[in-house]
Specification:
Layout: E1 3-8, H1 14-24, E2 31-38, E3 41-48, H2 51-60, E4 67-73, E5 88-90, E6 93-101, H3 104-113, H4 124-136, H5 141-151, E7 154-162, E8 169-174, E9 179-182, E10 187-190, H6 193-196, E11 202-205, E12 211-215, E13 218-222, E14 228-229, E15 234-235, H7 238-241, H8 251-257, H9 259-270, E16 291-296, H10 298-315, E17 319-323, H11 324-327, E18 338-344, H12 350-359, E19 365-370, H13 376-380, E20 383-386, H14 399-418, H15 424-435, H16 437-445, H17 448-459, E21 463-468, H18 472-487, E22 490-495, E23 512-516, H19 523-534, E24 539-544, H20 546-552, E25 557-560, H21 569-588
Parallel strand pairs: 16-17, 16-18, 18-19, 19-20, 21-22, 21-23, 23-24, 24-25
Antiparallel strand pairs: 1-4, 1-10, 2-3, 2-4, 5-6, 6-7, 7-8, 8-12, 9-10, 9-11, 11-15, 12-13, 13-14
Bound molecules: 5-amino-5-deoxy-1-O-phosphono-D-mannitol.
5-amino-5-deoxy-1-O-phosphono-D-mannitol is lined by residues 297-300, 344-346, 349, 352, 395-397, 481, 485, 601-602.
Length: 605
């Protein structure tokens, strides 16, 4: 949830750390801070709010030093304040931390009983208090860090910086990602490789339970049992890891615009040599699976909800679908022939990861669909299908959603083939439809000006209702989520047929109702629900294709989508869902890429 950085440099490190934090700001932006060791002494600067405030502070109060650690925070324990901002420092040690220390209350009581005075409400401060106590007892920094780590329960990544130690940072990974960057006479650490992309393309990913002593000449890595261990140095594609807005006003705008190219290149990646089919990882076994369990959060969950229709329709495979944060706590019945599928853009979402660990011993196969192939979820799955969307920085997920849908469609079609429900010709025909998706998505993006004009009306609304049937129901849910998170307008989504069972009471002339209804087998039914809304003066915006709009008759607002095969309609109709949220947010002047209270990856349960 938070981002952490460490640099042992040859020059002043504050500007380097600040720059790396900018690339991690998607992980949280409640406060930020940097600590350095300069002439043997620890010093730090911390500021509430976005990184720009820390950056301004450093102009007036520079922070010299060639070794340092930095942090950008998404508040969990204790609100956004300077006192709660990282790095936390007690005596001769400072710490930055991402994750949760689950036993912090017990530790806090114990330390307070020993005389420790706490100055923040954070769980992190217990780490630094413990380390300081061990130093005061005469331990050397490495011993003190190790002894501290042994006392901590929870999931975290952290880094220690010590007074008097200008050539050492100690870091540890347990449950949250952490990587080491190798430079020329310099060393770095960061929550992800993107943070380090401007400094180096040589990265070592720490494994679960690892801790490491980093110096300018290299890194010594120890596993959870304190055995010194070697982890490979991987060469990352620095160009791909670099992120900028490429001339767009927001990352979200850039990421929406990238969708045709993303879909094209992901399809290219999976396009196989098997007579026009696709190459999926060897070992995928849909034929023997008796049930597919899909688990995810947020937008990734809605992608799974669409895919449930596909797996049932094309493969006759029973699907069970759950939100990750609920899944583990309802004692799901799992079987040895079940396949479990986890979908996550970041691959680090704590609830999804915990659900994966929960099912792993009980099912035949664990499959992950992720955007970050080095992520924890990818590492812990048996088989990984990357979606190849490239870094997604805007908090509102866009290109990852459509790319997830594409990969899930490939899987569902493959399942249909393996289970004998789809013949080879049918399978190829469906793949052909998927290959056409990038072009239709580009056409949907061309409706942006029209959408911008319509959203003037939405921007004034207090509430908005989204309706859809079949695969368009999850699309309605996704549209409502996008609108809520970036425009702060209350939005709800309902299965169109469910409207009359309660929510229809909300309809009046002030309530915009957005209806996703391509001209498919369910069109007539959705449209009759839409007429129920119009009869009660609801302000309908119908999103359909030429045939649908012609058949629907007069509606207050309409948006014409290209006519597309049913299979790819959810991918294409995702575009207006995204653009509606984006332009409504622009009209309202909200912070599109970094909406309040949110962070890009949610690494706490
Ligand atoms: O990284 P993940 O796909 O696991 O993230 C899941 C959700 O946190 C994420 O989709 C969230 O709902 C987005 N902000 C939605 O736009």
């Amino acid at each position: 949830m938070c981002g952490i950085v460490g640099v042992l440099g040859q020059h002043e490190v504050s500007p380097i750390i600040l720059d790396a934090l900018k690339r991690l700001e998607y992980r949280g932006y409640d406060s930020a801070g940097i600590a350095t060791v300069n002439k043997g002494r620890l010093d730090r600067r911390r500021a509430v709010g976005k990184l720009i405030h820390l950056s301004d502070m450093l102009v007036h109060q520079p922070l010299p030093g060639r070794s340092g650690i930095g942090h950008t925070r998404w508040a969990t324990h204790g609100g956004p304040s300077v006192a709660n901002a990282h790095p936390h420092q007690v005596g001769r040690v400072a710490v930055v931390h991402n994750g949760i220390i689950e036993n912090f209350r017990a530790l806090r009581e114990e330390l307070a009983a020993d005389g420790a005075v706490f100055t923040s409400q954070t769980d992190t401060e217990t780490i630094v208090q413990l380390a300081s106590q061990y130093l005061d007892q005469g331990m050397m920094p490495v011993q003190a860090a190790r002894a501290t780590l042994r006392r901590l329960d929870g999931a975290f990544a952290l880094a220690f910086l010590f007074e008097g130690e200008e050539d050492m940072i100690i870091c540890a990974r347990r449950g949250s990602p952490l990587c080491i960057g190798h430079g020329e006479g310099e060393m770095y650490l960061g929550s992800d490789a993107i943070a380090l992309a401007e400094m180096t393309n040589r990265i070592t990913y720490l494994e679960e339970g690892d801790w490491a002593i980093v110096t300018r000449s290299g890194v010594q890595i120890f596993d959870a049992d304190d055995r010194q261990t070697a982890r490979p140095v991987t060469q990352i594609n620095a160009a791909q890891a670099r992120v900028d807005k490429s001339g767009h006003r927001h990352f979200m705008a850039k990421e929406m615009a990238e969708q045709p190219a993303v879909l094209q290149s992901a399809m290219g990646f999976y396009s196989g040599l098997d007579h026009g089919g696709v190459d999926l990882p060897a070992g995928l076994d849909f034929a023997r699976a008796d049930r597919l369990i899909m688990v995810a959060c947020g937008t990734a969950y809605y992608a799974c909800q669409v895919a449930k229709y596909w797996f049932e329709q094309f493969a006759g495979l029973p699907v069970e679908l759950d939100i990750a944060s609920e899944f583990r706590y309802r004692e799901p019945v799992l079987g040895p022939q079940n396949m479990a599928l986890f979908v996550s853009q970041s691959g680090e979402t704590a609830d999804t990861l915990a659900a994966l660990r929960h099912v792993r011993p009980h099912v035949a196969q664990v499959v992950a669909v992720v955007n970050v192939p080095t992520s924890s979820i990818a590492r812990e799955a048996d088989l990984v299908l990357p979606i190849h969307a490239g870094p997604e920085i805007g908090v509102a997920s866009t290109k990852a959603f459509t790319a997830q849908l594409q990969v899930l469609a490939l899987l569902a079609l493959r399942a249909g083939l393996e289970r004998g429900r789809l013949g080879w010709e049918d399978y190829l025909a469906r793949l052909g439809e998927l290959r056409a998706a990038p072009g239709f998505v580009a056409q949907a993006l061309d409706r942006e000006d029209e959408i911008r004009r319509m959203t003037e009306m939405l921007a004034k609304a207090r509430d908005v209702l989204f309706l859809g049937r079949g695969v368009m129901y999850p699309l309605a849910l996704e549209g409502a989520l996008k609108l809520k998170e970036i425009s702060y307008i209350h939005a709800e989504a309902y299965a169109a047929g469910e409207l009359k069972h309660g929510p229809i009471a909300l309809i009046d002339k002030d309530l915009p109702v957005i209806v996703f209804a391509p001209h498919d087998a369910l069109f007539e039914k959705t449209v009759s629900n839409m007429h129920e809304v119009m009869a009660r003066q609801g302000r309908v915006l119908l999103i359909s294709d030429a045939a649908g709009l012609a058949e629907a008759g007069e509606v207050p607002y309409s948006l014409q989508m290209p006519t597309v095969p049913d299979l790819i309609a959810p991918i294409v109709y995702a575009v207006p869902a995204q653009l509606i949220a984006y332009h409504t947010a622009l009209h309202r002047g909200t912070d599109v890429d970094q909406p309040r209270n949110l962070a890009k990856s949610v690494t706490v349960e």
